[in-house]
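Module 6 notes. Inverse folding takes a fixed backbone as the condition and produces residue identities as the prediction. Think of it as a translation problem where the source language is geometry and the target language is the twenty amino acids. Below is one complete input and output pair. Work through it position by position during the lab.
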């Protein structure tokens, strides 16, 4: 039976059986530098289906290395592998060991590729050049990778197939490889390897088994929007869907709940002050439903009314207001706030840095939407992007070193990342429209919305750039309005809570193939958000 563990490989080695001696040398030389190769004679287990194993390996590799010879030129198996690699948008690197040109279908698929010629005087003279070329394609400096120690030996890999995926990332010594791969390997060339297989339905409620960092606190709750007495209200529930308890119930609509950094308060949007005219304001309530307080005295009825966010270190809230005629960013506490931006153009999408010292935001002051940074006192304004297109929806990485955002600079919206100073811009997606990036807690993944399949769904990119679709059911995708987020990460990063068609589900990410943790449906509602203090270490 094929293992469920899907490892991301650096190189898939494709060759004709008559060139096995060359392939053996190539694999040994690459793996001597700790470049992970997938090699059929070694990596296909006796019980595995040959075609499925090769298909899965190509799907999870970064470079498709074809050892091109007269035998490979005539090999139907090599051609089939090449076609699949091109279909999966894997980078193809031909290593030509004989002085000849491709013929037939092979010519069609290889004629436009950049070749590494290795036949004069002998292919053996070009092995080091091949290693350098692979490293260059992976954006990994040769001197760095040659000094790294192998993290997963054969015995570790066998054990890893039985372990949960996030735990694999905590194995001693993997930090160096993870950081190097995240920084250098996740580039435009390898930013999109799509796996559109449907996910499995696993009916289990033991959420403690899903957490690699601790066990659930007894007081852990998810806040969500429920529909009570013909209006939208806030409710709490345990992560397994039990103990569903309303904490608001008014003739108005209470929506967009967000937890404070310490998990003791919930801010939300409500029109309860004037429900007939639908004036939206920010309210704050304790996690037990007590002490309901209007955050400010401003009514916000524009497209920005739901753009507010708690500070990660205090009880302050950053929000967007048009009280001065245009949209500005404000920061404040209950009953008191100040503007930190002031420009005739519109400023929106405030996002706190993890240390609470800066705000990333979107401004139209250059005639299009660009991303800016400003200190929380309104000082030190910095423009991070200067493209003529629209850059939107900034999201900080948890360590504060990078910012993900959506931009239509390529014609459609795609996900990009950059350093917090605007350097090292990398395009992460290529297909469809992609919006609203959100980092995982360990910074190894980014979730976002995409319409690439013809319907709006949540997608996820892992550390190495492979992409998966998170599908809740066969009938429809995750419905969302472009100003709303219908999912949130659990604090330990092992689970995503999402809503679809008014039903809340859990999606576990501990397996290489994310599955729906359906639990007979957790609740009827929308906007599920985990409390930040749900897990405690044993």
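Target side of the pair, the amino acids:
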């Amino acid at each position: 039976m094929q293992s469920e563990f899907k490892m991301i490989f650096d190189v898939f080695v494709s060759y004709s059986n008559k060139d096995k001696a060359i392939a053996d040398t190539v694999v040994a030389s690459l793996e001597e530098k700790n470049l992970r190769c997938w090699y059929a004679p070694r990596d296909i287990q006796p019980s595995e289906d040959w075609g499925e194993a090769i298909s899965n390996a190509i799907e999870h590799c970064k470079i498709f290395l074809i050892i091109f010879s007269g035998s490979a030129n005539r090999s139907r198996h090599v051609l089939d592998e090449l076609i699949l690699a091109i279909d999966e948008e894997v980078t193809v690197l031909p290593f030509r060991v004989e002085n000849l040109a491709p013929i037939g279908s092979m010519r069609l698929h290889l004629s436009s590729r950049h070749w590494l010629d290795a036949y004069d005087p002998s292919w053996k003279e070009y092995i080091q050049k091949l290693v350098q070329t692979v490293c260059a394609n992976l954006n990994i400096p040769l001197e760095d990778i040659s000094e790294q120690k192998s993290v997963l030996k054969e015995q570790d890999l066998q054990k890893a197939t039985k372990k949960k995926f996030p735990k694999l990332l905590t194995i001693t010594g993997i930090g160096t490889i993870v950081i190097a791969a995240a920084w250098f390997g996740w580039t435009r060339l390898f930013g999109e390897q799509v796996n559109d297989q449907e996910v499995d339905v696993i009916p289990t409620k033991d959420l403690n088994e899903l957490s690699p960092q601790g066990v659930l606190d007894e007081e852990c709750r998810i806040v969500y929007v429920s529909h009570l007495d013909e209006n939208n209200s806030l409710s709490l529930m345990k992560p397994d869907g039990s103990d569903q308890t309303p904490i608001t119930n008014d003739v108005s609509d209470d929506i967009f709940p967000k937890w404070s950094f310490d998990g003791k308060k919930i801010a939300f949007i409500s029109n309860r002050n004037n429900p007939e005219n639908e004036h939206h304001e920010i309210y704050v309530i304790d996690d037990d439903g007590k002490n309901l307080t209007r955050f400010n005295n401003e009514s916000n009825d524009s497209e920005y009314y739901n753009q507010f966010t708690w500070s990660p270190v205090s009880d302050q809230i950053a929000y967007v207001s048009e009280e001065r005629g245009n949209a500005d960013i404000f920061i404040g506490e209950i009953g008191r706030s100040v503007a930190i931006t002031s420009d005739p153009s519109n400023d929106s999408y405030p996002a706190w840095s993890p240390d609470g010292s800066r705000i990333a935001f979107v401004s139209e002051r250059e005639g299009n939407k660009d991303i800016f940074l400003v200190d929380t006192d309104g000082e030190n304004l910095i423009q991070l992007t200067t493209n003529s297109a629209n850059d939107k929806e900034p999201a900080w990485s948890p360590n504060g070193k990078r910012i993900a955002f959506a931009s239509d600079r390529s014609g459609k919206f795609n996900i990009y990342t950059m350093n917090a100073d605007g350097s090292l811009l990398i395009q992460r997606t290529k297909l469809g429209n992609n919006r609203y990036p959100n980092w995982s807690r360990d910074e190894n993944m980014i979730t976002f919305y995409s319409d690439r399949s013809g319907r709006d769904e949540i997608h996820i990119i892992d550390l190495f750039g492979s992409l998966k679709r998170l599908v809740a059911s066969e009938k429809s995708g995750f419905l969302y309005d472009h100003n709303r987020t219908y999912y949130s990460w659990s604090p330990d990063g092992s689970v995503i809570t999402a809503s679809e068609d008014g039903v809340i589900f859990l999606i576990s990410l501990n397996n290489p193939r994310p599955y729906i943790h359906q639990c007979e449906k957790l609740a009827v509602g929308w906007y599920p958000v985990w409390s930040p203090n749900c897990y405690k270490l044993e």
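Reference fact for the lab report: The radius of gyration is 26 Å.
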